[in-house]
Amino acid sequence: MQELHTQTLTQLAAGMQRGDFSSVELIEVLLGRIESLDQSLNAFITVTADAALAAAVRADDARATGDAGVLNGLPVVHKDIFCTKGVTTTCGSRMLENFVSPYDATIVERLAAAGAVVLGKTNMDEFAMGSSSETSYFGPVRNPWDRERSPGGSSGGSAAAVAARLAPAATGTDTGGSIRQPAALTGTVGMKPTYGRVSRYGMVAFASSLDQAGVITRSTEDAALLLGVMAGFDQRDSTSIDRPVPDYVASLAKSLKGLRIGIVRQHFDTGLDDKCAAAVRESLAVLEAQGAKLTEVDLPNLDLSVPTYYVVAPAECSSNMSRFDGVRFGHRAKDPEDLFDLYCRSRGEGFGAEVKRRIMTGTYVLSAGYYDAYYLKAQRVRQLIAQDFNKAFAEVDIIAGPTAPTPAFRLGDKTDDPITMYLNDIYTIGANLAGLPAISIPCGFVDGLPVGLHLVGPHFGEETVLRCAHQYQQQTHWHEACPEGYQ
Amino acid sequence: MSGHWEVVIGLEIHAQLATRSKIFSGAATAYGAEPNTQACLVDLGYPGVLPVLNEEVIRMACKFGLAVNATVARRSVFARKNYFYPDLPKGYQISQFELPIVEHGELYIKDADGNDKRIGITRAHLEEDAGKSIHEGLDGSSGIDLNRAGTPLLEIVSEPDLRSAKEAIAYMRKIHTLVRYLEISDGNMAEGSFRCDANISVRPRGQKKLGTRAELKNLNSFRFVEKAINFEIERQIELIEDGGKVVQETRLYDSDRDETRTMRAKEEANDYRYFPDPDLLPIEIDEEYIEAVRRTLPELPDAKQQRFVTDYNLKASDAAILTVNRALADYFEAAVAAGTARAQVVANWVIGDLAAALNKDGLEIETSRIAAGDLSGLLDRIDDNTISGKIAKEVFDAMWTGEGTADEIIEARGLQQITDTSAIEAVVDKVIAANPAQVAEYQSGKDKLIGFFVGQVMQETGGKANPGQVNTILKEKLAK
């Protein structure tokens, strides 16, 4: 039998179904790996070993009594931005270092109801603000492909854990690329669904109009499986959409014959690493060989997506972060002199530099006299970008391109230069601004580091995106590669 | 106040909407619960929670908009108003800013000359209330009660069309009456369900440009509104006449000292950084919805007042009093319908004795000790001459203390009016015989003595003789 930690969720589900192993055995293996290997990565903030074993016992009982959900006994890890009852939810911040949520996020509930076993909570950029998982109060996450490099961010802990075979699947959140870019940089599959497809209830908000929960796995099939459980209307989230959830796994099988794939002219202009570009072009050739038709499409306002994002996201962030005032939960400064001092020091001590930078930027762009010039204008440009996508999707079914401009960069390389860091999300941000489903899948290596192929679909086009990714993975083995030291 | 100055007032009225649960959460809105027992995670602004609109508030706001002849927006948007305050859990209040649900309304008040005056209603928007800070009884520290956080409010903003404290009060009373008619707010001012901020400025009469205004915050009784506004007008006029300048600021009214004082100056004012709340979808309503709401509108106070004058021949002033409160108007109509008494007589009793009795016992019309039908039963006995108006007051008091219906009390106490002419004549004869001196005086021209004789007859009959008959018979017999 293939070693348990190397198997995908789908394989594990089948094996457990056959009775090859129990959930307890599986969970013990993975907890053992986390224990011995995570020191090298810092992918976890919290490991919930006891609760995981107890849940595994229950899952085995449930299987014995024929009462098993689709994910029964299967391990997942949650990005530490999802509220989990009775376990700390830190958001990678000193502000919430000791915060224990009194309730479960909707997706945490749904995965638990399907029988999933939670191994722990993963490290991340503070409040999901960052592209390298270096802004965490709990220290940076390391990339298993090269521990001197970043796994990307903000869901870097989830991506590193999945890449290093510490867990077969993880949840993540994606506001500007925070699932897809780390997936690209760690050689994993990262899927962000359509805005409104998955409930945001219980996901600590960074930029509410852009935030969307998704998954990081090692195969597209697994992403489809998990997404099917997480997706669906939630009356506790007004922005979630009441629309039936298709059977994503069932939709994978159809061939790519006749699929129209758009290649964005602007994607290959400047800023994209040559070797990455070559890997992406090669993957497009594979898709073409499978029967897909490649055409060029135009996203004329693509270059405006990063500046637009860095107005809209900080604006919403500045408001969303206001509830962390030291009064009801979270970090509270010692011996405040007065109310103002309580606010200033609680927030000053509780938040890190990147969060503060975004709060200040956001406060500025919403201020009287600047609102029209920044926030309002950014919202208009956002409309234009969404229109560009709509026009493109009139001609093609999928838009394909690179996920990130370079492979994983060195830790510390970009921390002093926020703008360069922000540009790392240039290819992913558009899907957030337009609310579109998108996936990153491994498509090659550059100097031993993974490269991601980015596929974007129209609204609620998850099935097409997943099918395209899955069919590609039927012809390629990039996603099966395992980093040295984690086999 | 100098006639040289014109006063300009605009009011922002906050009416708590009478929903059972909060505007964005399922927590209860009942007043007076133990602190923080009616605040759920959404009200507490916990990480990860999201607001979900209570759709009842849309219907209520729509009702109000239609009642003040306003435009009800087909699309309105919630916005975040950002500021830090301990009783504001999220660090922002969810309100409406650029696109409110109600705009361009109006209502009419009576001006000083008794003429109708139109007061524009700029807008009415939905928002959530904040919690309360508590500074008493906590050994010098401050507490926060978030029971009120998230209670729905309709903020009703008037145009600066009001020209005196009296007009401001008249407008505020009209709104107060209206929201209770519409059953969208209980209007309870003591519990803070209905309160107002006033923007006040003065300018030389004839000047077009508005003077610098001061905003008076949180006025929660009609009396305080009037006193606070009048104080503020005096203060501004004196200040200007002494060569000073009014500064734009927010002021608080101190009812103990009857004065206003600075709360915060303009430069300390918050920049609220409003922007559309991305957690909530825009409110979108169509014509059909609006028409459905329109069909649920009750008869509005002005229409009812007019009808009372036309249909019941009531004095306009009485019609106004009776229609201030929908329950009072209903009571009046029920009492009229149940009996034979003239509507004006019913009105006199409702406004007079009944109102006084309710007031004395601190009761509302809904909890009156005498039901409309029972009052009607009493007035019928006056109408059919069973008792006099004077005896009726005695019966009313007995009814109030629960002795029974009018008929039961009249029967038990033997209060039936004496209308038998021969019986009254007998008493009159007796009185005339007993008072020869007064008879002589009366017959020599001292007409006023008739009162004396009436009194004597009434005394003899225990007040039960029909006063009209007594008068007629006395005059007849004395003239002989």
Low-confidence stretches of chain A: none
Average of per-residue pLDDT values of chain B: 92
- Largest β sheet strand count, sense and barrel closure of chain A: 8 strands, mixed
Distance between the termini of chain A: 15 Å
Q: Can you tell me the CATH superfamily of the domain at 4-257 and 428-480 in chain A? A: Amidase signature (AS) domain
Number of helices of chain B: 15
CATH topology category name of the domain at 4-257 and 428-480 in chain A: Amidase signature (AS) enzymes
**Biggest β-sheet: strands ordered side by side in the sheet of chain A:** 4-6-5-10-11-9-7-8
Q: What is the quaternary state of this protein? A: heterodimer
Number of strands of chain A: 11
Share of residues in helices of chain A = 25-40%
Number of helices, where a helix is a run of at least 4 consecutive DSSP H or I residues of chain A: 15
Query: Tell me, what's the shape of chain A?
Result: globular
What structural class results from the helix and strand content of chain B? alpha+beta
Low-confidence stretches of chain B: none
Strand order across the biggest sheet of chain B?
Answer: 2-6-7-10-1-11-12-13-14
CATH class of the domain at 4-257 and 428-480 in chain A: Alpha Beta
Can you give the helix content of chain B as a percent range?
25-40%
Secondary-structure arrangement, i.e. CATH architecture of the domain at 4-257 and 428-480 in chain A: Alpha-Beta Complex
